[in-house]
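Moderator note: this is an archived Q&A kept for reference. The question asked for a predicted structure of one protein chain; the sequence and the answer are reproduced below.
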Amino acid sequence: RRLYEINMGATAIGTGLNAPAGYAAACARHLAALTGKPYHTAEDLIQATQDTSGYVHLSGNLRLIATRLSKIANDLRFLSSGPRAGLANYILPDRQPGSSIMPGKVNPTQCEAVTMVAAQVMGNDVAISVGGTQGHYELNVFKPVICANFLQSARLIGDACVSFEEHCVSGIQPNYPRIKELVNNSLMLVTALNTKIGYYKAAEIANTAHRNGTTLREEAVRRGYRFDATRIDVPEAECTGVGLTVTEGQMDLERRHLEAKLAGRAPELLPLPERLEAHPIFRVVPGDVEPWERA
């Protein structure tokens, strides 16, 4: 709405000097009628003569859009790198395939175009911000550079979004075999075993898999763990000390106490790491905590 506030017809730094009464309002009415846009006279004509913060604010929004577009385009570019030496999670449509040096190479030109647009929009925003600082006293003479850069940014962002969707995003295909391969070979999935077999045993499985070039499942099965869709059976040889059966409610209570300790508050019950060290193997069963535990 602020972009529709104008000082046209205000004359002499917004004082209206030498202009007929109602001249500024008449200018706004005629401009609105010609364009079909809701132009109106600014409440403070002197302020409107030197203030360009509306353009600076909107340019900042365009810069924010450019930032997000650049992040998305780069993610797609890196996740589609390959087809054999990179991540290759996604398959982008072939646009402008071929290279003057490398036969068969396909460049992610649409992603590259979006990131270049983003860089230009960010640069334009700097120019607009600098222009906004030039409203010395009652007049800002930098409106031409502000408007030129703003209009270019708006056109670039609009055109880039349409082109990116049409020539790239709409044709992206997940590379399911490659995704499955990466997930199965990931060592970080061992985190899910923490609450099942304990931190140290999970770390041992991950380190062994890394040294042997095997998967987490292969190393876990080699140690006698059995998996199905809902549970992990722990071999007796892996159980040291007294096994601990806890309810879901007890586990949640322990986690909240640990979070409280990390936040600098002193929990009343023993923190979770000490419980795990005393009982490295525990089994989580349905149920809540006892009233005395909650107290």
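Archived answer notes: The longest helix spans residues 53-79.
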